[in-house]
Structure to design on (686 residues):
């Protein structure tokens, strides 16, 4: 069997999730041996229109980007959304909380109306094209990335956690952030990151998006226990989970 | 040799973000010579409005994945300036170390993975894996150690989670610092190996110079009692090779240095200070601070014949190698200082107040400024960021205008290669474009 051809693309993002692939360090040698990387602009000059798997980082914020993503979709058998900007829109969606013309004026002042500064409502990839798999996080977890690639190479369907961050945070024996009078998104956000933020003394910011079927009753109970409301929780969703 | 040249590099490869190179030469006459940047704008300065003072560094860290530590650090310090928060010397030292880890990681990535393929005539590092396995593995090892250092100090490699205005949410243990010290000591010989590998191909660096202004931080006072004045990435004022004895400018006044403006033929915000363009980055730092490099840093510069006053932009990568040696030796000193003092847990206290704050820092690819204003409830009402790559675009354009006539007789492919290498030498980080850039320059 020939090696699957992989291409990596990016849209509006910080390219930090592609960096996590580079950050696999020595293991990247095995990875580029197991697949045929045919295009990866950030790291290689080679280019190709023929690929089986497209890995796409970033959000869609302009009509020309929507068009480019559709072309990538039409060429790829499998399309993987890489990182929060691609899977949920991430920080880029905070823009959607403002009037778009006002946002442009805020940054560009008198030049805001120039045609090339056009920006549309920020969208995650699945809001534009069909996405086969999502690797969540800001940034992604390199271990999870390897697991997804391994599963795809073995013809298996990758398993993405459907339980909340609290599960992984508890396993690390962290003191709950609510005990520090903080509002942590751990109870409703998808695990798979290994809870690095609560482990370093911060709350969960919610970069992996809502877990499937979040246990709303349990979240309400936590809110009640600490004299908080679900609205307080929603307010904290602005950073990575704006609409 | 052909007198007609058409270069249209759409989305130049092996750089962070999206840039285009366009050159049209007809019958030996240069009609177009452009460096264009079509990156999708993300509007960070608008998005931070309404967010709490302690969410700012988490948001703006996402300006750039490669220099997320610099963005987080400079934002945290700008917030601290606005709220008048003092941090402990321990916090300052740990942050210093965290910043060093990013310089090392970013420089090794840039020189080893993005620049080296040009020197060895390859399109990427991938074909070099079978051809020069040991060299590639040595580069990967140095990159890994730098990332392990970031992970220890920042809570993870990219987008730090240990910083908070007023201090740190987590400081490393003394044992963790001792093991880090061992790892860093062990990569010193590896760095020398990497320098020798680059030196073996250094004749591939084009012979091109253009005098310009070099802008960086400079520290004229030692930070703490008993420490030395240093080759600074973290503290200090803004200096320039064009200051001619005038005092450096405080980072808080960065807007009067960057002088962001819209080019008459473009919509881009460019920057200029004493002349039409200036350069930021490792070569700028070197040209302003070379005598303060660590012993091994100086040795590396000597290996390549890099001397203060160098105006060959391709030597930015060599200045980065000298800085790699410097930050490893500098990190060992900071670790010793922290171990001598002993690490203590910190409690962060914040009293809110309305105010505006500013900070400047050296990101791996050059001087970086952030400013924010907060209301009395700690909500952000205004933000402004000026990133190093913005400050280099006008200089890249001017380099192009000198480089194209100098090398056009070598033909289209050789010229294109030199122009791509020039852009890469600046280590641009175009996603950082918090301001949209679209540079049109038609002669």
């Amino acid at each position: 069997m020939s090696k699957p051809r992989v291409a990596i693309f990016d849209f509006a993002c910080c390219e930090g999730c592609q960096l996590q692939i580079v950050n696999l360090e020595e293991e990247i040698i095995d990875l580029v041996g197991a697949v045929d990387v045919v295009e990866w602009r950030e790291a290689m000059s080679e280019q190709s229109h023929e690929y089986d798997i497209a890995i796409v980082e970033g959000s869609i914020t302009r009509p020309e980007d929507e068009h480019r993503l559709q072309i990538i979709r039409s060429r790829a058998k499998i399309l993987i959304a890489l990182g929060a900007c691609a899977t949920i829109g991430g920080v880029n969606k905070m823009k959607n909380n403002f009037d778009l013309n006002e946002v442009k004026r805020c940054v560009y002042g008198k030049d805001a109306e120039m045609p090339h500064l056009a920006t549309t409502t920020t969208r995650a990839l699945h809001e534009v094209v069909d996405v086969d798999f999502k690797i969540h996080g800001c940034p992604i977890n390199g271990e999870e990335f390897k697991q997804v690639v391994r599963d795809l190479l073995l013809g298996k369907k990758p398993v993405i956690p459907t339980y909340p961050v609290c599960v992984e945070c508890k396993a690390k024996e962290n003191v709950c952030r609510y005990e520090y009078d903080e509002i942590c998104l751990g109870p409703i956000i998808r695990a798979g990151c290994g809870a690095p933020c609560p482990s370093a003394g911060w709350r969960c910011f919610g970069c992996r998006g809502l877990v499937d079927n979040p246990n709303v009753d349990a979240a309400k109970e936590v809110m009640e226990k600490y004299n908080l409301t679900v609205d307080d929780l929603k307010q904290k969703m602005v950073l990575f989970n704006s609409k | 040799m052909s007198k007609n040249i058409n270069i249209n590099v759409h989305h130049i490869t092996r750089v962070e973000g999206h840039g285009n190179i366009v050159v049209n030469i007809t019958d030996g006459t240069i009609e177009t010579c452009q460096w264009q940047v079509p990156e999708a704008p993300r509007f960070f300065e608008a998005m931070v409005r309404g967010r709490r003072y302690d969410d700012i560094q988490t948001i703006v860290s996402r300006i750039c994945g490669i220099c997320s530590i610099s963005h987080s650090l400079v934002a945290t310090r700008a917030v601290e300036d606005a709220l008048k928060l003092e941090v402990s010397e321990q916090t300052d030292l740990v942050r210093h170390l965290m910043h060093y880890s990013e310089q090392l990681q970013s420089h090794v990535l840039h020189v080893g993975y993005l620049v080296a393929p040009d020197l060895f005539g390859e399109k990427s590092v991938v074909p070099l894996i079978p051809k020069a396995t040991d060299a590639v593995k040595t580069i990967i090892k140095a990159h890994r150690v730098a990332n392990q250092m970031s992970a220890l100090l920042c809570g993870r490699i990219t987008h730090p989670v240990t910083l908070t205005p007023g201090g740190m949410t987590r400081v490393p243990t003394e044992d963790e610092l001792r093991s880090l010290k061992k790892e860093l000591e062990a990569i010193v010989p590896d760095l020398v190996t990497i320098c020798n590998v680059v030196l073996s191909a250094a004749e591939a660096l084009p012979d091109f110079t253009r005098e310009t202004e070099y802008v960086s931080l400079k520290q004229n006072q030692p930070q703490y009692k008993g420490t030395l004045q240093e080759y600074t990435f973290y503290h200090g004022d803004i200096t320039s090779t064009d200051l001619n004895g005038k005092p450096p400018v405080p980072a808080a006044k960065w807007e009067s240095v960057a002088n962001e403006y819209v080019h008459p033929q473009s919509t881009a915000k460019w920057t200029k200070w004493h002349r039409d363009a200036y350069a930021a980055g490792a070569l700028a730092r070197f040209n302003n601070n070379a005598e303060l490099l660590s012993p091994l840093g100086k040795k590396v510069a000597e290996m390549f014949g890099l001397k203060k006053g160098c105006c060959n932009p391709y030597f930015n990568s060599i200045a980065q190698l000298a800085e790699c040696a410097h930050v490893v030796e500098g990190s060992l000193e900071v670790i010793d200082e922290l171990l001598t003092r002993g690490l203590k847990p910190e409690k962060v206290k914040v009293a809110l107040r309305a105010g505006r704050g500013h900070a400047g820092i050296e990101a791996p690819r050059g001087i970086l400024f952030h400013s924010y204003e907060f209301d009395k409830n700690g909500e952000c009402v205004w933000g402004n960021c000026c990133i190093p790559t913005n400050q280099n675009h006008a200089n890249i354009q001017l380099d192009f205008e000198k480089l194209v006539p100098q090398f056009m007789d070598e033909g289209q492919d050789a010229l294109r290669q030199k122009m791509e290498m020039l852009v890469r030498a600046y280590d641009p980080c175009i996603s950082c474009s918090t301001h949209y850039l679209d540079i049109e320059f038609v002669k």
